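Duplicate of #3305? Posting structure anyway:
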């Protein structure tokens, strides 16, 4: 007897999947590419290679990478604390992690600006130390770190819950120190999930707009990221320039995510063979 399946067969399911992805993802992206193909190569190159655009690319990728790297470190600590320890207020702390998901990005930007401005709760102390937070590249990095934290924590939590504490006890019994246990037992098991969280936080930061628009100050060549430049182009009715920058960012983001996924696959297969 043929095995009865709850969902339809492979052909129907695949057809619905491709149709849904086409309507939601592929068709809008194809329209973006078609918009660019309507212009000449010179127009495209002038738009994507302008000095203002180059400065926006540098800040976007640098701040996104820095924010994702910070979240990879401290998100690991937060996830470890939530999984391995019991303490009063744990559920409240666990719920706070999802606030960047729930808050409108504009509200997040206003809150961060109020806190890190020169007269803010944190910004005033940074100002005394000679550190400019709001309306600076540091402010952009802070905003991108804020929106990316939940991706790292929520990706690491299931992996930590599946990690058997007995492996750590066995390593300690065999004479391994804490650092050896972390480097040779814990980290290899969590590295694929950590890379996934980093990639998600990095991708989220690349396309962020609302939380950055206030704290950055939108100063060209200094605090303007790619998404802000695209909106500025649209406000100037330069649809070709906005689409050109959007296509370049799309291609760059896809290539970087592809490289990160390849690295994740290599790490998972390598440690899977040695396990």
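Output from current build:
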């Amino acid at each position: 007897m043929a095995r009865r399946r709850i969902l339809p067969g492979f052909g129907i399911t695949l057809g619905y999947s491709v149709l849904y992805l086409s309507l939601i993802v592929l068709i809008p992206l194809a329209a973006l590419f078609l918009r660019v193909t309507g212009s000449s190569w010179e127009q495209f190159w002038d738009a994507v290679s302008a000095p203002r655009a180059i400065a926006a690319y540098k800040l976007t990728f640098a701040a996104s990478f820095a924010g994702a790297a910070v979240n990879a470190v401290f998100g690991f600590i937060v996830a470890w604390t939530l999984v391995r320890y019991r303490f009063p207020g744990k559920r409240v702390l666990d719920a706070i992690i999802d606030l960047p998901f729930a808050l409108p990005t504009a509200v997040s930007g206003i809150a961060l600006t109020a806190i890190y401005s020169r007269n803010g709760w944190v910004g005033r102390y940074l100002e005394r130390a000679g550190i400019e937070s709001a309306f600076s590249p540091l402010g952009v990095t802070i905003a991108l770190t804020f929106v990316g934290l939940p991706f790292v924590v929520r990706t690491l939590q299931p992996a930590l819950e599946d990690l058997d504490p007995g492996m750590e006890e066995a390593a300690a019994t065999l004479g391994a120190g804490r650092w050896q246990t972390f480097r040779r037992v814990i980290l290899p098991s969590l590295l694929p999930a950590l890379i996934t969280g980093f990639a998600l936080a990095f991708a989220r930061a690349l396309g962020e707009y609302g939380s950055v628009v206030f704290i950055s100050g939108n100063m060209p060549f200094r605090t303007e990221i790619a998404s802000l430049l695209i909106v500025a182009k649209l406000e100037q009715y330069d649809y070709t320039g906005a689409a050109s920058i959007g296509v370049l960012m799309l291609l760059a983001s896809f290539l970087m995510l592809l490289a990160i996924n390849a690295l994740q696959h290599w790490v998972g297969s390598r440690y899977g063979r040695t396990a």
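Confirmed duplicate; merging threads. The two ends are 39 Å apart (CA to CA). The mean pLDDT is 85.
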